[in-house]
Amino acid sequence: MSKTRRIWNILVAIMMIQAAAALMMVPSAGFILIAFFVGMLLAFRGIKFLIYYVTHAQHMTGGKWILLVGLIMFDLGIFAMELLDKASAILIIYVVAIHLIYGVLGIVRAVSNKKDGNSGWKIDFAQGIGNLILVALCLIFIKHVEIPVYIYGAGVIYSAVLKIITSLKKTAIVYVQ
């Protein structure tokens, strides 16, 4: 990881901590902001996948999967933004589903990295477990809008701290001969 990338990651992590603290100070408005940002994130990632498909992946093996993932993410993002004023429980489930996916993928990535002998598997495993704990807590307190906002804020702060740790960790440079 380059020095510029490390600095950028640390700055993003600091902004994540500040945003989480702001959300936790005003949980009623924080819920709407979380739902909005989740919808925007899904929509923009969907657009990113669609652009990648149009520019590169349509000629690749398995490129249709990128198209499918892009369409689904874009659709889910637009759908989430439509639900901002309708049903808070549905949006909490949306947030829970996203963290469930990230938690499972983090653990799968950690297992794969451990098999390959990569020392970074501990961070991936910790992030996966953290996301799964966040899912469990959100499901336990799904009836209260404020408590999942606090839990989500704590999860964002946890992810930011892991991002800072990853950025400060030395990485090996592999030369191919």
Mind explaining what this structure looks like?
The mean pLDDT is 82. Helix 2 (27-55) packs antiparallel against helix 3, helix 2 crosses helix 4 (88-116) and helix 2 crosses helix 6. The chain is an all-alpha fold. It has one domain. It contains 6 helices and no strands.
Write a concise keyword list for the protein shown above:
177 residues, mainly alpha, 81% helix
Element layout with pairings:
Layout: H1 3-25, H2 27-55, H3 63-82, H4 88-116, H5 121-140, H6 146-168
Helix pairs in contact: 1-2, 1-6, 2-3, 2-4, 2-6, 4-5, 5-6
Count of structural domains: 1
Rounded mean pLDDT is 82
Straight-line N-to-C gap: 20 Å
Share of residues in helices: over 70%
Binned strand content: under 5%
Radius of gyration: 18 Å
What composes the largest sheet?
Answer: none
SSE topology string: HHHHHH
Q: Which residues form runs of ≥5 with pLDDT under 50?
A: none
The computed structural class is: mainly alpha
Q: In one word, what is the shape? A: globular
Structure summary:
Helices cover 81% and strands 0% of the residues.
